[in-house]
Amino acid sequence: MTKKLFITGVIILYLIFGAYPTQLGSANPYTTLVVTPGADPTAVLLGYGKFRNFTTENSWEAFLGLDSATGSSNDVSWDAQNTFAFTYSSALDKLNIAITNTHGVYSFDYLNYSTQVLNLKGALAYSYLSALNYLQMRIVVENHASTVVNLTGVMLDGNPLGDFSGTPGSSLDWNVTGYDLSAGFTLTGTLAFSGINSKSPEQNKVDLFMGRVDHEGPVSTNLVASPNPAGVNALMSFSATIDDTTTGLSMIASADYRIGQAGSWSPMAAQDGSYDESAETVEANFSAPDQHGMYDLCVKGTDTATNEGSTTCISLSVDDQGPITTDVLLQPSRVGTTQLMTVTATISDTFSGGSVINSAEYSLDSGQNWDAMQAEDGTFDEVVENVKVTIFAPDQSGTYNLCVRGYDSIPKQGSASCKPLIVDGEGPGTVNLDLDPNPVVVTQLVTVTATISDTYSGGSVINSAEYSLDSGQTWDAMQAEDGAFDEVTELVIAAFDAPGSEDTYTLCVRGWDALGNTGAETCAELTVKAPEPIYNKLYLPLVSKSTP
Predict the structure, then answer these.
(1) Residue 328, Cβ neighbours under 10 Å: how many?
(2) What digits encode the pLDDT tens for the residues 105-115?
(3) 161: alpha, beta or left, given left = phi > 0 and alpha = psi -120 to 50?
(4) SS3 sequence, 46-59?
(5) How many other CB atoms are found less than 10 A from the CB of residue 447?
(6) Confidence (pLDDT) at 246
(7) Are residues 232 and 141 in the same domain?
(8) Strand order from edge to edge, sheet including 479-480
(9) What is the pLDDT of residues 169-185, one digit of tens each?
(10) Range of the domain at 400
(11) Residues 103 and 252 occupy one common structural domain
């Protein structure tokens, strides 16, 4: 604590302290400053100055410090009129009181102010230094009708606050809000008293306080519901951060949650076990609603200054429906027995609850047995998943009902979506075999026609046809009569020269379908014969016999 005493007459106060009023007040819009009678009971008081023991006979007291228990007394020779300045400087980290009267100028410093606050008031109060916004003036007058104690011409950083008078036998307060004091301020004015017949320390006095008042509720952030979506009646947890560090720096007193706009509020617990900080992580465990739908899951907090924060909500999806399976695709959709094939589909919970897809499976026997499918991107972690599986087709011909279904994270099983899978292990049949001509003369051109059809043996497109004249030892190609093999039934044709030897030959025809299945042979006998003999006619002369 330092003290300076000047007995050089009345010195203009702003010459001592410089041009601080306009500099300190420049960042503060004056229109927000409010002076209100009384004290705010929620205010946290930090620094103070006190003028007491008023008398013009001797040197008495001016206090400076954190509160009446931790301040220091400084001697002042009072006069009936005393100009004063109560100053806080964040940059210099000190409080100062300066008093000027006919006896001289008195200046007292309270140094290392922030360290003193931290040591004496704690970390929370220390944090209030960055948010000072409250001044309080108190005038106490002894119970004597002739006593007068006034503060006149009071100004805050050059902004006029007015005149304030004590009433005999009372203690009166005024508070100043709506002004940022955190960087520093100077409260100036004149202390005048008269009619004092007792210098009892606390009977006639002026108290000046600075501190923090909190009229804003805490902010709720980081809302997390798990799981979300949740199943009907599922046990779930809900957490949030309730934070007053930017809205008042009060400690958090409580937090509550509700489900739905019409739901009732229920308490949440501090995650660390107690509400004792300006920011708290809060949590609650409860059962999800018993009806499918979307709900607002909301939280609000209250601070120790009894300010209730605004309600903050997230959406909670309650899901009692499984995902929908669409776009089932079999590649190919018609396969040969044991042929490799791929099944793909889309599993989506977008319109049935919004849950993440957890798994998918397929069945080849209308749902009697199920096997797993994979997510195409490698992981089941989205509301919509494309799934696939590569398998071997069954080893028996027939039409199978291949089904796909999915599960969400609730987990809820979705309904199956099915597609027919045709397994074709049979070759096409050959009918209407015709040889023209038959019998045929050796080396004469023969045309063979037939109908190749897979209509009753799998339904696959005909891929090729061939014929053989030597019991299947060698085969020669036939053509589709319409020029292309592209239908399930094809009329096929071939022409060849008949063998050069007379005999009866077995001519066989068979077809192939697009899946590589070979059809059974259909055969007919081809008779090859020698050509008819050519007879030359003998013409004899006609002789006429005459009778003599």
Answers:
(1) 18
(2) 999 999 999 99
(3) alpha
(4) EEEEEEECCCCCCE
(5) 14
(6) 85
(7) no
(8) 429-436, 445-453, 489-497, 479-480
(9) 889 999 999 999 999 99
(10) 324-423
(11) no
